[in-house]
Amino acid sequence: MAENQSRPFDHPRFRSWIAVGRACQTMQSALGRALAPLGLKPPHLDVLVNLYRFEGLTQQDLARKLLVGRSNMSMTLPQLEKRGLIARYGDPGDRRVLRLRLTESGRHTAERAMAIQTALIDAVLSPTPSDHCTIIAETMEAMIQRLQEWEKTL
């Protein structure tokens, strides 16, 4: 590389990309440790929160919302079902379709887990002014959109 040529890691966009990735990894790690007393991991929380908000999703709908493959759901859902946190039930309009719902225990666990997540978010972001949080969210949402569009070109 020529001496007057900039290196990728010297560019502000590269620094931003690395910071976003590290923040995501650090957040997932911290959330994982915070959820451990409930016997949950962040992917379990994602499932529980979505079923808390949108009862009756199919496995495919849930995978789409979480931006994961159905195979990921095939691994996670049986764990939660075995613990009695979720249940599958037949769709009255289409016997081929199974829908998902939280059990009473699942609803209680989801509420406890959401309180843990909210406390972590508050602890980390409370020093950040609300308008900065809005800018961060909008920037990340735009990044997600561009990444999804870029992936379509592959």
Strand adjacency order, main sheet? 1-2
Return residue spans where pLDDT drops below 50 for at least 5 consecutive residues. Answer: none
Largest sheet descriptor: 2 strands, antiparallel
- Mean pLDDT equals 92
* Total beta-strand segments: 2
Radius of gyration: 19 Å
Please provide a written account of the structure:
The protein contains 6 helices and 2 strands, in the order ααααββαα. With 154 residues, the protein is mainly alpha-helical. The chain has a domain at 32-127: Winged helix-like DNA-binding domain superfamily/Winged helix DNA-binding domain (Arc Repressor Mutant, subunit A). It has a two-stranded antiparallel ribbon with strand order 1-2. Strand 1 and strand 2 (94-102) form a beta hairpin. Helix 2 packs across helix 5 (104-125) and helix 3 crosses helix 4. The protein is globular, with a radius of gyration of 19 Å. The two termini are 28 Å apart.
List the helices and strands and how they pair.
Blueprint: H1 12-35, H2 42-53, H3 59-66, H4 70-82, E1 86-91, E2 94-102, H5 104-125, H6 130-152
Antiparallel strand pairs: 1-2
GO molecular function, one term: DNA-binding transcription factor activity
Domain HTH marR-type: 1-149
Protein name: MarR family transcriptional regulator
